[in-house]
Design a protein that fits this description.
By secondary structure, this protein is mainly α. It has one domain. The chain has four helices and no strands. Helix 1 packs antiparallel against helix 2, helix 2 runs antiparallel to helix 3 and helix 3 packs antiparallel against helix 4. The two termini are 21 Å apart.
Length: 114
């Protein structure tokens, strides 16, 4: 995995958890708006909107660089629109990055040993 691909996955991973938190907070704010006089939906909606747009842009960049198949790309997109989905995406991306580092080290060791 080259450095640009790793960086695109890292960016996607960094935005996935905050996007999930903002989505959950937006849901809470929506309930509070209906049940109390507290209305933070406009502010939380804007924050979540920016984070969602960042997620989609970083998802497109990662899809382009990693050459994911359609199924993998679709899974990461669906995780962005599900409550708690961003947390699962972050965990999957972390595991994929760790696997890539292990594979890279193994290839490097094979080249050195040969």
């Amino acid at each position: 995995m080259d450095i640009k691909t790793a960086a695109s996955l890292h960016r996607l991973r960094l935005v996935s958890a905050p996007e999930a938190v903002s989505f959950l907070l937006l849901l809470v704010c929506s309930v509070l708006k209906r049940t109390t006089d507290f209305n933070a939906v406009p502010v939380m909606g804007a924050i979540h909107g920016v984070l969602f747009i960042l997620y989609v842009l970083f998802w497109l960049d990662a899809w382009n660089r990693t050459k994911w198949d359609l199924k993998t790309a679709a899974i990461y997109f669906v995780l962005s629109v599900l409550p708690f989905g961003g947390f699962f995406a972050e965990r999957k991306l972390k595991r994929a990055a760790e696997d890539a580092v292990i594979a890279s080290r193994a290839r490097r060791k094979d080249v050195v040993d040969a």
